[in-house]
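To assess whether ligand presence alters the predicted conformation, the chain was also submitted together with 2-keto-D-gluconic acid. Input:
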Amino acid sequence: MTRVLVTRRLTDAVHARVERDYEAVLNMADRVFTRDELIAACQEVDAVIPCHSEIFDAAVIAALPDRLKVIANHSVGVDHVDLAAAKARGVIVTNTPDVLSDATAEIAMLCMLGAARRGSEGDRMVREGRWDFWSPAFMVGRQVTGKRLGILGMGRVGRAMADRGRGFGMEIHYHNRRRLEPAAEKGAVYHDTLEGLLAVSDVLSLHCPATPENTGVMNAAAFARMPDGAILVNTARGALVDEAALVAALRSGKLFAAGLDVFRTEPGGNPEIAALENVFLLPHIGSATTETRDAMGFRALDNVDAVFAGREPGDRVA
Ligand code: 8YV
C-alpha cells in the first residue's frame, strides 16, 4: 500500500482521510523534525505532506529515497522547498493555493486594524490593570477608512485583501510583476515599480512569495520612501523584511505601527520587535481556521491522489 508521511498534526478530518486511503505515517508528537529526523522519516514513504516548517533544501532532497514521488505541501508558500533540486531529482512538488486566501486576508485585516488602532497596547493595558485614565486624547490611533492601502503582490491573497480594503473604504494601490486585467483590478491603481507603490502606501500589506531576489525588500531605504506615519502589515513571509530596519523605523516614528503574523525566526519571533509598543503580533496563524486547514489538507491529499492515480496533480509547482 502507498505510504504517506504527514509531518505535523493536521485536522481530524484530514487524518481520517489519509488513514482511510493510505498507510499513514503520522508525527503525532507534532514537533518540527530536525533535518536528520526529516530525512529518516522520508526513507520508507512514497509521499510526504509537509508544512512550511519542514525545510527541503538541496541536501535533504538528495537524501530522499527513489520511492518518494511527491512532496505535497500543506501550504501555498513553497520557499521551504528547493524546487530546482526536486525537479532535477524527479520529485513532484505541489502546494495548496486558493483555499487559504480568505483566512489569510482576514488575518491581514486583523493585523492592519490591530496596528492602526493599537490593539495589543490597549489589550495589555486592560488585562494588566493599568487602565486608570481616560481622555479624548487617550490611545488615539489611525483611521484606515479613506486611506491608501498598498498591496505588494496582487495574487490570490493580495486580491482577497484588496476586496476587504475596499469594504473599509480604502483606495487600493498595488505593485505586481504583471498588471492585472481591468476586471481583476477593480479600480486598483497599478504601480510599475515598488518605489512608486511605497510612496503612496499609508498602509502597505505584503502578499508576495519569498524568493532569493526579494529577501529583505522592506529595508531602510524602502521604509524611508513610505509616507511618514505609515503602517506595515506582513502575513506573507518574515524573510521579506529587514527586521533591524523595521525596528528602527518603528522606534523613530517613521512607521506609526506594524502588524505582523510572520517573522524571520519561527517559532519565536524577534524579541526586539516584541519589546515595542507600536506592534500587533501574531504567531503565524494566517491560515489557522478549521475550515481552511481542512481544505488545505484535502487539497494536499487531492494532489497525492492524482500522482498515484497517474494523473497530473492540480497544484504542481515543480
Ligand atoms: C501555513 C503558510 O501556516 O500556506 C502557507 O504558505 O505559511 C501557512 O498557511 C502552514 O504552512 C500550514 O501548514
